[in-house]
Amino acid sequence: MRADILNSQVVSLSNDTIAIRDKSDEKVILLFDVLTGKALGEGKPLTHKLEVVDIALDQCGPSTERKIALVDKNRDLYLTSVRHLGREPKICKIGSMVHSMAWNDAANILELLPKTLYIKDGSDFSRAPHILNYVGTKVTLRQGDGSLVYSSVPPYPALLHTYSTSARWEDALRLCRFAKDKSLWACLAGMAVANRELTTAEMAYAAIGELPRVQYINFIKEQPSKESSLAHMLLFSGQVQEAEATLLQAGLIYQAIQVNIDLFNWERALELAVKHKTHVDTVLAYREKFLQKCGRKETNKRFLQYAEGVEVDWEKIQAKIEMELSKEREKAANASVRSSVASRR
């Protein structure tokens, strides 16, 4: 370890994790547990597609939810989880033309999606200022000439994080109504979804005019079973594989197939149908309907192979789908009755 190559842009520390950019390969970030010194991520480092110029670990919350932000040489900002079990980490781009970044000391606040941004005029700063820290509501920056300047941000986002972590959703809603700030409502929507607080999420999305998301939340609420609701919550958060796994584990094979059909994952939908020997005709029917709308003919050899021996009858398919949904409703009702009896005991 050479101390002369270490600086705040290539090393980041939280109370449970340390991240270091690899000197020999600047696309690689090494992650270690602070207490044990062991490498995280099953011993595999985090590898980005481009050279990384700046890294920062978030400073709050449990270690299982630890996140790292990184800026690459194109000045794009990415966010990913530090701890991921049995799967590749999902690295999400959340900003571009980023020259400096810092996490808040008491709430995991960073630049997020467009509707959650708080934008402040930077004309008072000199060229290429660098963010030193973000404590409370005060941001400290070092200008190109070495002098320090200070800027402040509203206290509401940090307070909203406090309410979210303690599940004080009514207080969070009151705060957003008081502040009358759409970026705050957008933050609340994201926090509520992450905590599966559907009613709060619905109100927050409605406040920022995201009506399709409001409709999808109502669709989630109408699901006949807890497993289906959870799966669609995972889909809502972009976790497709986890959603499918939840449905398959619960024995909801048709629902898992239908999720893939809805996402136009045709190959996977057919694979599940063939594997479980059910709803092959359903997949073929929806595929045929999709191709007709697009004005195209089937060219996939696998679909052509199964289409030869399967008759597509929409009446039978609809009846079969309704039977599957009826079974799910009945199973959920029985589970609810058993739960009620157990609670009385």
TrEMBL record:
Gene3D superfamilies: 1.25.40.470. Keywords: WD repeat. Residues 1-110, 111-156 form the IFT80 second beta-propeller domain. Pfam families: Beta-prop_IFT80_2nd, TPR_IFT80_172. InterPro entries: Beta-prop_IFT80_2nd, TPR_IFT80_172_dom. It comes from the Eukaryota. Residues 184-330 form the IFT80/172/WDR35 TPR domain. GO terms for cellular component: centrosome; cilium; intraciliary transport particle B. GO terms for biological process: cilium assembly. The keyword Lipoprotein does not apply. This is Intraflagellar transport protein 80 homolog. It comes from Lates japonicus.
